[in-house]
Amino acid sequence: MLNKHLLTFIFSSSLFLLNAQDQNEVIWQSRTWVAKPMASQLMMEAMKIKTQKFNQGENAKNFPIMSFRILSGEMEGAIQRISYKSAEDWDTYLSQPKGTDFFRKKVIPLSDSDKSSGRFLAVSQEEHSYNGSGDDSNAKYSEVTRYLLKPGSNLRWNELRTKLVAAHQKAGSTARFSSFSITSGGLTPTFSLVVPFNSWSEYPSLLSTIFNQDAYDEAHGVGAWEKYLEVMNEIVLERKVFTREFLPELSSN
Question: Which of 132, 154, 162, 216 is the most buried (most CB within 10 A)?
């Protein structure tokens, strides 16, 4: 019998790919693993071996993986594993039976299935992302904010995010953030904002750099920022935040 985690992957991925609009669009697949008591180090070591054997070198082209340790929030201490491909690549997906079998036998038994989160599928929103830093490398840390919107709020959300990016472009800011639309695995519509940083000395001013009232009002007129906050309060049903640490030893090179 197929493992239940594998069945979930096949079913959710198939549903999502049927609806893919752009074959070059990047699809991100995320799952968060919580270790059983006293098994955290063992689970991480098993993930490390799996990554070294099946997600490095030539295998990294077809089976790329990124891993993070969650530092705060509801899943503190868990390990988030993210794979990513274009829709076209997922359509021609090649299975990796040995890698899947290794994970099923060596990693999953060390995880707590009741506490580990289900699989999320998301697409990048390049038009709502910005990078004025000139740095595309994986940062040591990142803060992730997930916004669950009220039904029917997508157009207003898109307008706010488009204006936010425009403000950064006009100001020529050095901020860096990425936006994603979560399409499967949770309540929708949900959007995610990822803000990378390399030192905790950056953290206190991290969000004020992204949500900059002066830059926003300069781009869209005095009082525009107050309107931004007003609309956000109207359309956001729930907001969850967590920080995470990038784990290069558990990630593709």
Answer: 216
| The pTM of the whole model exceeds 0.90 | no
Query: Residues 182, 77, 198, 203: what is their CA dihedral angle, to the nearest 10 degrees?
Result: 80
Type of residue numbered 206: L
Please indicate, yes or no, if residue 115 is contained in any of the structural domains.
Answer: yes
> Within this chain, do residues 166 and 225 fall inside the same structural domain, yes or no?
yes
Q: For residue 176, which of 193, 196, 192, 156 has the smallest C-alpha distance? A: 196
Q: DSSP letters of 124-177?
A: E-GGG-EE-SS--SPPSEEEEEEEEEPTT-HHHHHHHHHHHHHHHHHHT---EE
Question: Are 150 and 201 in the same domain?
Answer: yes
Whose tokens are 């990078």? That residue is 131
Per-residue pLDDT of the chain (253 residues; tens, 9 = 90+): 334 443 343 333 433 443 445 667 889 999 999 999 999 999 999 999 999 999 999 888 889 999 999 999 999 999 999 999 888 877 776 678 999 999 999 999 999 999 998 888 999 999 999 999 999 999 999 999 999 999 999 999 999 999 999 999 999 999 999 999 999 888 889 999 999 999 999 999 999 999 999 999 999 999 999 999 999 999 999 999 999 999 999 999 8
Neighbours of 149 (CB within 10 A): 19
Helices (H), 31-153: 40-54, 59-62, 87-91, 97-102
